[in-house]
Amino acid sequence: MFIIKYKKIFISLSVFLIAISLIFIFAFGLKPGIDFKGGALLEVEYTGIRPEAAMVENSVKKLEISQALIQPTGELGYLIKTRDLSEPEHQKLSESLSLNGKYPVLEKGFTSIGPSVGSELARKAILSIIFVIIAIIIFITYAFRKVSRPVASWKYGVITVITLLHDIIIPTGIFSLMAHYTGAEVDTLFVLALLTILGLSVHDKIVVFDRIRENLREGDKNDFAQIVGTSTSQTIVRSINITLTIIGVLVSLYLFGPETTKNFSLILTTGLFFGIYSSLFFASPLLVWVEEWQNKK
User: Could you say which residues form the signal peptide (predicted)?
Assistant: First the structure.
């Protein structure tokens, strides 16, 4: 019940976090990766000693390949991101990384995406997020169609979407801040992480709202705020345990997984953390606030 008692504090904290995240996003921006702007990604691993990054950079510069970004990966590898490369340029780049045969190197993967394909992927990524949010509103409104008092069913859907935006805006803001200093880019795994956050977070919110619906159906004679507080308390342990289990797996993926999935696991972990927070400390207080606001009209 303390969640509802201090609802103004929790709602204010969420609004503050959203505002800070939006400031980060607009101030630092989100740099699109090769998935969306086109380009090439080459992953290599040296079979012996890995040369210094400066040596690799000088070797690439001699080929006059612009916009090259070189990032260490693992103990012996490098990720090299460049503009879109032709096959002859790809071969020359691969050969140059051995530094005249002094450092034997193995190519582990090469991806090349043209600008037109990248822009199409960006458009589809944005549409997919919009369609998911619309589908969630429709589903929540339908699922709670028999709940009309004291809060209409469609308002459950709107509150769910507001809290879901909270769950993806905050991780995006954190990523924007991190990318400003590390050079991380937005790719399809980033979009996949956001869609996964939406799916898992909406599940938590439905669990809480469903408990509220059941307590209302059972004719609980307490006022609405007490019903919401009791319902939240009944689901808090289950929700936290499930989320912590998933986060444990993601932390392992971040620590021991490949370099290419680190941003994915980091964004997903952050999103799930704030997702469980919003389900318990933002969605429920917001529902009570809406009910109180209705009574004042």
Answer: none
Q: What is the DSSP string of 219-263?
A: T--S-HHHHHHHHHHHHHHHHHHHHHHHHHHHHHHHHHS-GGGHH
One pLDDT digit (tens) per residue for the chain, 297 residues: 677 788 888 899 999 999 999 999 999 988 877 767 767 888 888 887 888 888 888 888 888 776 677 878 777 888 888 877 778 888 888 888 888 778 888 888 887 776 555 567 777 777 887 887 788 777 777 776 666 567 777 788 888 888 989 999 999 999 999 888 887 888 778 888 888 888 888 888 888 888 887 887 776 566 888 888 888 888 888 888 888 888 888 888 888 877 778 888 889 999 999 988 998 889 888 888 888 787 776
Closest CA to 234 of 201, 209, 200: 209
Whether omega before 150 lies within 30 degrees of 0, making that bond cis, reads yes
- The answer to whether residues 220 and 227 touch, using CB atoms and an 8 Å cutoff, is yes
CATH numbers and ranges of domains, the chain: 2-34+117-296 (1.20.1640.10), 39-113 (3.30.70.3400)
Length of the chain: 297
* Residue 243: closest CA among 198, 201, 190, 192: 201
Match 């070797």 to its residue by tokens.
Answer: 59
